[in-house]
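Cast an eye over this sequence plus tokens and walk me through the fold:

***
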Amino acid sequence: MSDWNTTVPEDGSEPWKCAAAGNDIIMPGNTNDDADIRDAYEKGLHSEREIRSCAGRIIAMIDKLAK
């Protein structure tokens, strides 16, 4: 999980790289995070496998906490 506002482009951050590195949850703060990740996916910089891995870990944590 990132901290608040850590994906602000003015600070040199690229949200898709956070997700590609295995950061499953990006805290709110930058309204362009979603568009950046989608754009990277469309350009082939971020794979469906990486995105599904992030989602899978979140789903697994929800399942674990629900028991």
